[in-house]
User: Fold this.
Amino acid sequence: MEVSDRSLAEADLILYLLDALRSPGVEEEAIASTLGAHGDSLVVAINKTDAPRSDVGAARAFVAEKLPNLPADRILPISAIQGTGIDELLGVLFRMAPEGEGLYDGDTYTDQDVQFRIAEIIREKAMNRLREELPHSIYVDVEDTELRDEGSRLWVRAFIIVERESQKGIVVGKGGGQIKAIRQAAQRDLNRIFDWKVELDLRVKTSSDWRQNDTVLRRLIDRR
Assistant:
């Protein structure tokens, strides 16, 4: 009990879930007695209100008797199985939750490195156009990046890696049309995401065993 009291005292929020199908008994009285000292952080949700035999009134009366200082707007009827009242409950919890310390500075909106994000965007555009021909046979390697024009332009050289020589022609397309379309689509997204003007040099090469290459697989995992 001492451990429970200490945990409750340290909690930012406490959500007490009552079952509207069950008449409050000794167990509920003991819990309510313990929670009485933590009213500032307490929210009560009365669940299973969708059930024909539910008695929301009895549950509300129990809360009013055992937790008389709890504001009415922190006693919410819900149905977890139907989703009824869940948005309202989440809204109350969100409003009550204290704001934590930022894990990153205000200008940071992702912890993924630049090369990983570039590679993922290129791969997405390639897969969108090649999913029928090459469903899982490609990955993207960003070989080089360079800031140019006093840091206003980001030059990127990347390779779409395929497993067989015959697949290179599929990626390149007739007259280079396929890879050009992939490059243009990726470049549009990259220019929208980054502050730099992105210039993408996109090429294709073959690596027959890349899916069995530990170095490649480790690099892909580490970037995530």
